[in-house]
Amino acid sequence: MIKRIIFDVDDTLIKFTKENWVVSYTKLIKKYHIANKKAQDIYEAIDEYEKTITKYEMETFLKFLSTKLETNLNEEFFQDLNNEIATNWIVTPSPSLISLLTFLSGQCELVILTNYFTDVYKKRLANMGILKFFTDIKGGDYFVKPNPLAYAQYLKDINPAECLMIGDSLEKDILTPAKMGIKVIMYDAENRYPDLAYPRVTNYEELKSKITTLFL
Asked: Model-level pTM?
């Protein structure tokens, strides 16, 4: 019996589109006069930073981005970036997502595990109107996935087999938690893993059915 479901956010609960970050990063490049750089450069710098750390920290984050972008970024940039993410990287939740979360929140505890600053994602989910379904959210300022310590945060009071991880990344959401004994479901809306050995769904209706059949 599953007692806790851990959800990833981007491309699981929220469709993460290139349009979102291109608009936001281009705006920041213009405001902070970051010379000879494009939105792609900020995207790649943040992605590279994440691969070098065990947890997000504002100071190391700004230092890393400043070096990669050849400029001097301050806390004001940090706040503007996070405001962009919290307010503009959102979508209107589909009726099928609301139905899924309403159903699951009545069956077990729902929590969030994501790889960015926790407060930013709290605001982002609140702005979408779905934060209310989750009892806790832990971001990359605790631990970054796929570090086992990230998932272990949600295993302190239950057995791994009583926990289910749902996400779109094979590396970050499936392989490590599965090795830890956590149940997993791949959310594969883009149909990238048709032959995956683990349980897999492509939409929220399938996800509700799969969870009900296998775990509830």
From this structure: 0.96
Question: Which value, to the nearest 10 degrees, does the dihedral of the CA atoms of residues 215, 191, 193, 128 take?
Answer: -50
Rounded distance between C-alpha atoms, residue 54 and residue 175, angstroms: 18
Residue ending a domain, among 37, 65, 88, is 88
Q: Do 57 and 129 fall within a single domain?
A: no
Cα separation of 138 and 165, whole Å? 14
Based on the domain organization, do 121 and 191 belong to the same domain?
yes
Residue 157 token pair: 């009071």
Looking at the structure of the chain, the number of domains it has is 2
| Average pLDDT per block of 10 residues along the chain, 216 residues long | 97 92 96 96 97 97 98 98 96 96 97 98 98 98 98 97 98 98 97 96 97 91
